[in-house]
Fold:
Amino acid sequence: MKIICIGRNYAEHIAELNNERPSEPVIFIKPDSAVLPKEQDFYIPDFSKDIHYEVEVLVKIKKVGKHIAKAFAPKYYDEIGLGIDFTARDLQGQLKEKGLPWEKAKGFDGAAVIGTWVAKDKLANLGQLGFELKKNGVVVQSGNTSHMLYSIDEIISYVSQFFTLKKGDVIFTGTPAGVGKVAPNDYLSGILENQELFTVTIK
Structure:
């Protein structure tokens, strides 16, 4: 199982971090060891003083595929989820300044929250999914898949040019604006189409 993440897929998030708008999807990988075990708290690692939450819509791949045409992409998934791409923003900034890969800032243990999966046929329109992240009961991120620069099917088609997709792989499709820092005792909850799909306590 691999975790494939798409960066810079919402224009407002690109703007808030002063990043350049990409001409094609930005891809990075998290190892499977980054997945936060179910019901486990997230512990802020000692190598960072600026861990940010980034809520994202997730897609679980259901069969092997390579060079998948956009038109056939829906045949490769039937579950949608919600999760958090935790990011060590201070470490990421240092790495980016040096032109180095981001993996230490994105792929550390516990950096990937994967919530409950929902059958895609239970969702009315994958191109207009509303989702949000609450911190201590207050909405801090609110997004809609209609605002993605690259749709779910476009992402699957693009990614499969470079990586063979396998059953159980998870794709993080990017985060909307509103990312921010977590602190001990924060309580995060993720909602997709009015369904709470995960909760996480920060330690």
About this structure: Residues 22 and 176 are 15 Å apart (CA to CA). The domain at 3-201 is CATH 3.90.850.10 (Fumarylacetoacetate hydrolase; domain 2). The radius of gyration is 16 Å. Helices lie at 11-16, 89-97, 103-106, 152-159.
